């Protein structure tokens, strides 16, 4: 997109399905915690709020529509942020489970992983001395032998089912080939610009957090789609979060932060909330003379259907 006078989109991924409770006491687990942290992040400047659900009893990821309903409508009522619901869920969920709530809610946005992949944080298990809940250790160690599945047929199904209801996508690209997968679906006529491309760096199984990889992703997206047809955004996992998303803004892109992506605010210091990360990146961006996009500006930039078209 033309960068003249542009504004930067801040997305916030509030809890995710990868980090486990033992990794941070600040990770929101209950509907109340997720709701509170999401609202605070929106108030801090996040225009897009990306949401997963967790079982309030032990914090494990869940696709349950009943649990989603305990916080999503209240977030929508309390903020004007764009609500972005995961279709990725976790590696333990079936496609039907992952789509259970999105198909009911028909949100303005959903995340969409652009391919099957090894996706793991299993080396983290060796660093955790005490586990808060019994399910966590097997969950983290088990990632070594798990594949996140999103076949071409799965992706097509999601595009048809949700795209047919006016939902647009955060295309999560963990590798260069994922851009080519998106280009395939563009050629098939299943998605149309403007595309919101979330490049993911630093996840084991995907691209490493090397700045050079960002340049390759950006130039490849330019070649495949044309810069005027997409918005580039970056997610940096773990310790790479702030440096990589800042680089994204400098390269004409957008940023994503949140406890789904990193449980830290600085080296060795845990973030106490999602809003703390949003405030930090907003301060960095504003000190670099970038303006922050509002939710309604994001709706216009991404061609979203608007809040009035979303099922309560």
TrEMBL record:
Keyword Kinase: no
Cofactor(s) required, per the database record: Zn(2+)
Species name: Caballeronia concitans
Alphabetical list of InterPro entries matching this protein: Aldolase_TIM, BKACE
Superkingdom of the source species: Bacteria
Key words, A-Z: Metal-binding, Transferase, Zinc
Claim: Zinc is one of the keywords in the record: yes
Protein name: PF05853 family protein
One Pfam family hit: BKACE
UniProt xrefs under PANTHER family: 3-KETO-5-AMINOHEXANOATE CLEAVAGE ENZYME, 3-KETO-5-AMINOHEXANOATE CLEAVAGE ENZYME-RELATED
GO molecular function ontology, one term from the record: 3-keto-5-aminohexanoate cleavage activity
């Amino acid at each position: 997109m033309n960068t003249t006078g542009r504004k930067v989109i801040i997305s916030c991924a509030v809890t995710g399905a990868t980090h486990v409770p033992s990794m941070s006491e600040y990770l929101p687990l209950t509907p109340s915690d997720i709701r509170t942290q999401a609202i605070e992040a929106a108030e801090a400047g996040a225009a897009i709020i990306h949401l997963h659900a967790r079982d309030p009893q032990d914090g494990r990821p869940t696709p349950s529509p009943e649990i989603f309903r305990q916080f999503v409508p209240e977030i929508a009522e309390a903020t004007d942020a764009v609500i972005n619901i995961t279709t990725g869920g976790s590696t333990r969920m079936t496609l039907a489970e992952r789509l259970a709530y999105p198909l009911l809610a028909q949100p303005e946005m959903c995340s969409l992983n652009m391919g099957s992949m090894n996706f793991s944080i299993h080396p983290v298990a060796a660093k955790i001395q005490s586990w808060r809940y019994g399910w966590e250790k097997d969950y983290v160690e088990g990632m070594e032998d798990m594949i996140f599945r999103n076949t071409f047929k799965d992706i097509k199904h999601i595009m048809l089912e949700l795209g047919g209801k006016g939902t647009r996508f955060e295309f999560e690209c963990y590798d260069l080939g994922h851009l080519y997968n998106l280009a395939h679906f563009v050629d098939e006529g299943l998605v149309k610009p403007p595309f919101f491309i979330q490049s993911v760096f630093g996840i084991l199984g995907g691209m490493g957090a090397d700045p050079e990889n960002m340049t390759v992703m950006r130039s490849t997206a330019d070649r495949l789609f044309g810069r005027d047809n997409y918005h580039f955004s970056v997610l940096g996992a773990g310790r790479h979060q702030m440096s990589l998303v800042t680089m994204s803004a400098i390269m004409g892109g957008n940023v994503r932060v949140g406890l789904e992506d990193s449980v830290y605010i600085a080296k060795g210091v845990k973030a106490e909330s999602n809003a703390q990360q949003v405030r930090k990146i907003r301060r960095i961006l504003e000190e670099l003379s970038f303006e922050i996009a509002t939710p309604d500006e994001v709706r216009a930039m991404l061609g979203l259907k608007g809040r009035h078209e979303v099922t309560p």
